[in-house]
């Protein structure tokens, strides 16, 4: 092992047996042994990385990619099928907070038990007891049985023990949202303090913002292999882009499923009313109204690269293309758009008259294009209403919920839209 390293992972593989129909009782297993069929699922397929002493790294990736399995291998909760893992120093893990806590024992008694699991002697625990109690902020409840604690109190006590064992290596798995907002800030400050003291830290988290605050390096694990490794500012945009594409695929499948469902419902209604689907379509408005002189045929969304999609990163360019069929000339036409959050809150609205475009008439079928250059809507699902009007606000075709769009972001700001801003800190 290199002298500058705290962790060395070399070509590690890990698989699990996933039983398809396994009996839960011995009798069932003996009588129905043919049910004990299983498949081998490879979670890690030969990953290798090194972590230097005092370095903080983050493991990112979608659910099931192998992040938590990697961390459990580092804690030696489980062992690899092949490859090697070498670690230097005392290890403290914040994976299953409170593992080993006994509900009938007091908080104080559980501190001794839990700290002993981490390898501390009674003398070492006594020396740290005041720090653990002070950090947990549970002084008045410390002699009560743990079963009387709320879930937040339970997690705070467990976290306080884990970070006060003076570990050389600290392993953290998705547990940074402990307690209330003030306590979370306290935990982050403690982690920064621990890092400054030279502790090696490995974090598994879906919160990229948390990783960027603490870690110098991110490792993106995808389908059991390392797909990218480097500075969080370099790796995270690539990861977010990939996740956006995956979300787009899911959205498209969901759209297809909904269309199939609507089509089936449409035919059932037509059969019930003993009319053709085409005749029924003419009688249905689907949240639309107007005089019908023009009808919106489709609303499609495109990214800056020209790719059709319905999932975008906050701040992206969104191109809206509206195809319409003309049945009668529309004089002094107006195209409008409204953006609504999924709970019905209107986020934005405008039209060609508000934007003071020159007057125009619709004399033939065609396509209207609208470029939304910098859409700063915060993560969530939104609906677009598209409208065609004529002259003095006469509705021609108002199409409610014409298209659904979803936004994602790695920034944790709140509200509806992101406002460009700059901070100037006191000197």
From TrEMBL:
<keyword id="KW-0547">Nucleotide-binding</keyword>
<dbReference type="GO" id="GO:0016887">
    <property type="term" value="F:ATP hydrolysis activity"/>
</dbReference>
<dbReference type="GO" id="GO:0140359">
    <property type="term" value="F:ABC-type transporter activity"/>
</dbReference>
<dbReference type="GO" id="GO:0016020">
    <property type="term" value="C:membrane"/>
</dbReference>
<protein>
    <submittedName>
        <fullName>ABC transporter ATP-binding protein</fullName>
    </submittedName>
</protein>
<dbReference type="InterPro" id="IPR027417">
    <property type="entry name" value="P-loop_NTPase"/>
</dbReference>
<dbReference type="InterPro" id="IPR029439">
    <property type="entry name" value="Wzt_C"/>
</dbReference>
<feature type="region of interest" description="Disordered">
    <location>
        <begin position="250"/>
        <end position="290"/>
    </location>
</feature>
<dbReference type="InterPro" id="IPR015860">
    <property type="entry name" value="ABC_transpr_TagH-like"/>
</dbReference>
<keyword id="KW-0813">Transport</keyword>
<dbReference type="Pfam" id="PF00005">
    <property type="entry name" value="ABC_tran"/>
</dbReference>
<feature type="compositionally biased region" description="Basic and acidic residues">
    <location>
        <begin position="250"/>
        <end position="287"/>
    </location>
</feature>
<dbReference type="Pfam" id="PF14524">
    <property type="entry name" value="Wzt_C"/>
</dbReference>
<dbReference type="GO" id="GO:0005524">
    <property type="term" value="F:ATP binding"/>
</dbReference>
<dbReference type="InterPro" id="IPR003593">
    <property type="entry name" value="AAA+_ATPase"/>
</dbReference>
<feature type="domain" description="ABC transporter">
    <location>
        <begin position="7"/>
        <end position="248"/>
    </location>
</feature>
<keyword id="KW-0067">ATP-binding</keyword>
<dbReference type="InterPro" id="IPR050683">
    <property type="entry name" value="Bact_Polysacc_Export_ATP-bd"/>
</dbReference>
<dbReference type="InterPro" id="IPR003439">
    <property type="entry name" value="ABC_transporter-like_ATP-bd"/>
</dbReference>
<comment type="similarity">
    <text>Belongs to the ABC transporter superfamily.</text>
</comment>
């Amino acid at each position: 092992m290199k002298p500058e390293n705290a962790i060395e992972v070399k070509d590690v593989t890990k698989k699990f047996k996933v039983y398809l129909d396994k009996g839960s009782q011995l009798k069932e297993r003996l009588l129905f042994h043919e049910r004990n069929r299983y498949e081998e699922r490879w979670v890690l397929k030969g990953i290798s990385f090194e972590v230097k002493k005092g370095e903080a790294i983050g493991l990112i990736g979608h659910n099931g990619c192998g992040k938590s399995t990697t961390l459990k291998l580092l804690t030696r909760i489980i062992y690899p099928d092949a490859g090697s893992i070498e670690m230097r120093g005392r290890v403290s893990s914040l994976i299953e907070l409170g593992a080993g806590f006994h509900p009938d024992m007091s908080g104080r008694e559980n501190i001794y038990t839990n700290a002993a699991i981490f390898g501390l002697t009674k003398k070492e625990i006594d020396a740290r007891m005041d720090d653990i109690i002070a950090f947990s902020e549970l002084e008045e409840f410390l002699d009560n049985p743990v079963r009387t604690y709320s879930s937040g109190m339970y997690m705070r006590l467990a976290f306080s023990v884990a970070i006060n064992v003076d570990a050389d290596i600290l392993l953290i798995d998705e547990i940074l949202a402990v307690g209330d907002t003030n306590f979370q800030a306290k935990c982050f400050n403690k982690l920064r303090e621990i890092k400054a003291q030279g502790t090696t830290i490995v974090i598994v988290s879906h919160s990229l913002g948390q990783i960027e605050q603490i870690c110098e390096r991110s490792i993106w694990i995808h389908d059991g292999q390392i797909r990218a490794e480097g500075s969080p500012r370099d790796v995270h945009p690539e990861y977010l882009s990939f996740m956006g594409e995956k979300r787009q695929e899911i959205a498209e499948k969901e759209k297809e499923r909904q269309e199939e469902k609507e089509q089936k419902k449409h035919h059932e209604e037509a059969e019930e009313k003993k009319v053709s689907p085409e005749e029924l379509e003419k009688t249905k408005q689907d949240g639309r109204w107007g005089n019908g002189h023009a009808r919106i045929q489709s609303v499609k969304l495109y990214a800056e690269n020209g790719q059709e999609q319905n999932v975008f990163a906050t701040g992206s360019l969104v191109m809206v293309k509206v195809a319409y069929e003309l049945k009668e000339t529309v004089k002094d036409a107006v195209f409008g758009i409204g953006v609504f959050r999924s709970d019905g809150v209107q986020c934005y609205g405008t039209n060609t008259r508000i934007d003071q475009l020159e007057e125009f008439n619709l004399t033939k079928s065609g396509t209207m294009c609208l470029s939304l250059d910098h859409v700063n809507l915060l993560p969530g699902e939104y609906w677009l209403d598209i409208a065609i009007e004529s002259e003095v606000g006469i509705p021609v075709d108002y199409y409610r919920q014409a298209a659904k769009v979803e936004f994602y972001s790695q920034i944790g700001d709140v509200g509806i839209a992101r406002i460009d801003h700059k901070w100037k800190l006191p000197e």
